[in-house]
Write a structure and sequence with these properties.
Belongs to the carnosine N-methyltransferase family. By secondary structure, the chain is of the alpha/beta class. It is built from 18 helices and 15 strands. Helices cover 39% and strands 14% of the residues.
Length: 519
């Protein structure tokens, strides 16, 4: 029987995760996670003798009915200073996000598999011959779908387990226990954002998604490379609506100081998870100090992701729906170090070398006296069309930029993605609708009705502008447009490259310089 004591070498969970025992380093805190006390016995693990004065009492979540029991072992080296510090985390948001990830498999099965099984049952009664012909095809598809959802769920549950362990490593379990269950169940939008976030790993953190992300990331990198050739560590860049933060990571690796912000706790927890992954084959993976390309990695370890498993339309062959990739394509923590929780921040903030990620609302939290003139560049990618009022975004950018600072933008102008996006009014696959909604949720924090709610009721009145109007308004708001073009290369957004339907955007790319105030 395995025994755990003070000298146990508890290893961190690897990229494959689902290890029952893991360690959290930093502050010398060891954390053991298991589904239940009895499960530990089944694993052949004996707990240490807690009667010893050198050992801490067993700490568990207050609610014994929770699906996960968290045990903190040997925590005595944590100082009182850290134990009582309040990092300003919205624990109810954390719990709600984790609950949404936890239910990924059940909710995805409910919304995508069960209705199709029910339809086949109806077909048996209404058209037995058609049902008989359809049966072998559906059996094959159902088997593949179940396998794909289970594989995707491994990534979702790894995010949950890692996040719980991460917060406990800072001895924040007392705060976490305050909200062991969110005050309200995850909304349909929360579940949709989780599904979109899992798919977004393909776009941001797979080798196969490089073409799509490079179409919008490369122009930003090239602009920065040409403008800032020296002392990059002193160049502060703000990325609002950062999502899974691949652009922020690549710029940090290139030497810039990057602040990425997002209002979605779902995206924040997923990003902290992926940024904490280490590269198992570091000798074959080196960061590119020049901005000529991304960090490359051929490491086969990681999670198997089926990004298009819940898309049922426009496939040439069944295998296209169940194409799978490995994520992440590299281990970010091998280059920047693993993120740590910023206990001085007034909101949830993760920080690594040259990169911070915070739970902030762009127009609300960045319009303060403390943020005035603090950034050299603001980079907006697939972002400005999430604004209800573009003027609010432009004013905020102008506020945070230093005189002469740059606003670099790449993206479409899909102002009302709830209704007018590819597959709008729920035509075609629900995935496309979810991905567009997730982009708005990530930028604004707005939680509209579920996918089954009235489309007209979901519509948000917005100021809808053409690219020509956007450029003209920039001049009127204190910017000089130094570069503007429509990129030749079109880009999708989590777009299956093999699909018969290619929903692509023509991307506006421009650079605007903040003019100094006239005396």
């Amino acid at each position: 029987m395995t025994s755990i004591d003070d000298s146990s070498d508890l290893r961190p969970a690897s990229a494959s995760h689902h290890n029952s025992v893991c360690s959290v380093t930093g502050y010398k805190s060891k954390v053991l996670i298991s589904k239940s006390y009895e499960h530990l016995k089944c694993l052949g693990i004996s707990l240490p003798n807690f009667s010893s004065p050198k050992r801490h009492p067993l700490k568990t979540l207050r609610n014994p009915t929770l699906p996960t029991t968290i045990l903190t072992i040997y925590n005595s080296t944590m100082t009182k200073e850290y134990q009582h510090r309040n990092p300003g985390i919205q624990w109810d948001e954390v719990s709600c996000a984790l609950a949404a990830f936890t239910s990924y498999h059940d909710m995805t099965t409910k919304h995508f598999l069960e209705p199709r099984n029910a339809l086949l049952d109806i077909l048996k009664k209404e058209d037995p011959k058609a049902a008989e012909l359809m049966r072998p095809f559906w059996d094959q598809k159902e088997t593949s779908l179940k396998k794909a959802l289970l594989s995707n769920d491994q990534l979702a549950q790894a995010i949950v387990s890692f996040s719980q362990t991460f917060f406990l490593s800072y001895n924040l379990d007392t705060d976490y226990k305050t909200y062991p269950i969110p005050s309200s169940a995850p909304s349909p939008t929360d579940h949709a954002v989780v599904r979109s976030t899992i798919r977004q790993f393909w776009r941001d953190w797979s080798c196969e998604g490089k073409t799509e992300r490079s179409a919008c990331h490369a122009p930003v990198r090239e602009d920065l490379e040409s403008h800032y050739q020296d002392n990059r560590e002193q160049v502060r860049i703000l990325i609002p609506g950062a999502g899974l933060t691949r652009l922020g990571y690549d710029l940090a690796v290139a030497g810039f100081s990057v602040d990425a912000i997002d209002v979605s706790y779902i995206q924040l927890l997923a990003t902290n998870f992926v940024l904490s992954q280490k590269d198992g084959k570091q000798e074959t993976s080196r960061p590119d100090p020049n901005l000529t390309g991304e960090v490359e990695n051929g490491d086969p370890d990681g999670f198997t992701l089926y990004p298009f498993a819940t898309q049922f339309s426009s496939h040439l062959q069944l295998s296209d729906q169940f194409a799978h990739v490995k994520v992440p394509d590299l281990g970010p923590a091998s280059f920047l170090g693993p993120p740590h929780l910023d206990l001085e921040a007034d909101t949830l903030t993760f920080s690594a070398k040259g990169l911070s990620l915070s739970a902030k609302d762009f127009t609300k939290d960045l319009n303060t006296a403390q943020t005035a003139g603090t950034y050299d560049t603001v980079a907006t990618v697939f972002f400005i069309d999430t604004a209800k009022n573009f003027f609010d975004y432009a004013r905020t950018v102008h506020h945070v930029l230093k005189d002469g600072g740059l606003w670099i933008n790449v993206g479409p102008l899909l102002w009302n993605c709830y209704e007018l996006g590819p597959g709008g009014r729920r035509e075609g696959d629900v995935d496309t609708d979810e991905d567009n909604r997730s982009r708005v949720e990530s930028a604004t924090g707005g939680k509209k009705g579920g996918l089954d709610s009235d489309v007209g009721g979901d519509w948000d009145p917005k100021i809808e502008l053409s690219n020509e109007e956007v450029l003209a308004l920039l001049v009127g708001m204190g910017f000089e447009v130094t570069k503007q073009e429509i990129l030749k290369e079109e880009a999708g957004y989590i777009q299956d490259p093999e699909s018969m339907l290619q929903a692509k955007y023509r991307l506006a790319h421009w650079v605007a310089r903040k003019l100094p105030k006239e005396d």
